[in-house]
């Protein structure tokens, strides 16, 4: 079973950038999308020519903002939006699909923003989201994926020193949030299988960053550690696939 996650930076925009060809090239059983920037009916309309997948989405109250979706060949047991906290559930950031032997959670973590104006909210989010996935884990293993909006360690971004505690996505508070996820028993699948590999999943549109590979790894698959050890046989970053400022990341399960 291959699972892929991709922040597409707008479902209607990416559909105009060979999305169908990219999906065919990925040949994935499940595709989790973040930042659809569309309401649920607009997501379905944009994907109406995509066949072979059940489609689920969770949209923000605010139109054209945030939003996540799951495309899956196998129908899940149940699909649940949000995390049950009204403060967070206005922005369409989480969608959970229950499969027979694990939960799959796709998440679009809030960005701390310019001037780090949303950093306090981000810290509240990190705490509440971790509590949510731990609650799920009480029933069965959890595999979570998406844009976590943080580079975890120095190896995960091209220019760590000038960005540390200055740029959203590489403050100590955000790093602590990821440390807490790992400390709670979840494993970063890519770093587990590729401990020293320098590879990024997001590049700024400015200054030709992608062409120069001045990027950040902020898109992850993280799973219950025992599940990762037993079931995850590969983890990849598909930086040869374009259409967004992010590229897809993927895992394959035994």
How would you characterize this protein structure?
With 254 residues, the chain is of the alpha+beta class. The chain has one domain (2-253): Deoxyribonuclease I, Chain A. 28% of the residues lie in helices and 27% in strands. The chain contains 9 helices and 14 strands. It has helices spanning 11-15, 19-26, 40-46, 119-137, 160-163, 172-183, 189-193, 209-212, 225-231, and strands at residues 2-7, 30-34, 54-58, 68-72, 78-81, 94-99, 102-108, 142-147, 186-188, 202-203, 215-216, 219-224, 232-237, 249-253. The chain has a 6-stranded mixed sheet with strand order 3-4-2-1-14-13. Strands 5-6-7-8-12-9 form a 6-stranded mixed sheet. Strand 6 (94-99) and strand 7 form a beta hairpin. Helix 4 runs parallel beside helix 6 (172-183). The radius of gyration is 17 Å and the shape is globular. The termini are close together.
Secondary structure elements and pairings:
Blueprint: E1 2-7, H1 11-15, H2 19-26, E2 30-34, H3 40-46, E3 54-58, E4 68-72, E5 78-81, E6 94-99, E7 102-108, H4 119-137, E8 142-147, H5 160-163, H6 172-183, E9 186-188, H7 189-193, E10 202-203, H8 209-212, E11 215-216, E12 219-224, H9 225-231, E13 232-237, E14 249-253
Helix pairs in contact: 4-6
